[in-house]
Amino acid sequence: MNAAASSAKPTIVLLHGVGLDKSVWKPVQELLDFDSVALDLPGHGQQPPLTSTATLSELGDDVVARLPENPVHLVGFSLGALIASNIAIRFPDKITSLTCVNAVCDRTPEESAQVATRLQAARDDFANSMSIALERWFPEDTPQNRALREETDKVLMANDVTSYLYAYEVFATGDRELVVDLATITAPTLAITGENDPGSTPDMSYRIAKYIPNTRVEIVPEARHMMPVTHPDVLAQQLNNHVQQAERIA
Q: Which residues, if any, are the signal sequence (predicted)?
């Protein structure tokens, strides 16, 4: 790392999941000790919709073009974690640390079949598949969950459906593309997921640690998939600690 980069103020860059936008990170950003930038993924939020099949590397290239000049602490949630890992593999000089939040890794045949079924369900009936996802993410009927379901539903239903499906195809298959190169990642890595996340399971975070050297795994008790909004305090504390430790050894 050059002198200018080493003297720059640490910046955390946050990548959201499929069908969401950068607003999912707001609760976490409010609790971070470092400067942070949340980006909309290609085809999401304020970015132009995807109009054709995309590869994981193409999504990564789009994000890299919008990263700050100096190396960043790159954090990805769900699809964002696949993109962040892809960037860590291909552009190691761009990052100081990597964090994979509620990430998938090296799905088993059964797990691959499950995500393929969800993709087909979205093709068949997008609105219904989003309702099912919301029930999976926020199952308990509490005031907090009702508010989160309503807020998240607005973001999901604002998607360009064709663009969403192209992005979901990457999410459904990108972990297989990554596995062969994960071991080349040298940045300090945190893999964190929820104890009760059915799609990005604790076992998947341990798989990340099996492939990526210098990975620390954290499993959040009772948490499910949408930790940036359900557990922002826990997530922010883990990110603050991870970034602080990575800065000491950078």
A: none
Instruction: Determine the Cα–Cα distance for residues 209 and 197; give it in Å rounded to an integer.
Output: 18
* 3 state SS of 110: helix
Give the start-end residues of each E strand in 184-250: 189-194, 215-220
Q: What is the residue extent of each domain of the chain?
A: 3-249
Cα gap 240→78, rounded to integer Å: 20
| Other C-beta atoms lying within 10 Å of the C-beta of residue 7 | 9
Contact 199, 86 (CB under 8 A): no
Return the CATH fold of 3-249: Rossmann fold (3.40.50)
Collapsing DSSP to helix, strand or coil, 19 comes out as coil
CA distances in angstroms from 11 to 58, 62, 79, 87, 246, listed in the order given: 23, 19, 21, 16, 12
What is the SS3 assignment for 34? Answer: coil
Residue 190, CA atoms < 13 Å, CB-side half-sphere: 26
Say how far apart CA 208 and CA 189 lie, in whole Å: 9
Contact criterion met (CB below 8 Å) for 101 and 75: yes
Distance separating alpha carbons of residues 105 and 68, to the nearest angstrom: 27
Integer angstrom CA distances of residue 43 from 51, 161, 238: 8, 10, 29
The pTM of the full predicted model, rounded to 2 decimals, is: 0.95
Q: In sequence order, which residues have a C-beta less than 8 Å from that of residue 82 and are 6 or more positions away?
A: 56, 76, 103, 104, 170, 171, 174, 175, 178
Per-residue model confidence as pLDDT tens digits over 135-149: 999 998 899 999 999
Tell me the per-residue pLDDT of 201-226, one tens digit each, with 9 for 90 and over.
999 999 999 999 999 999 999 999 99
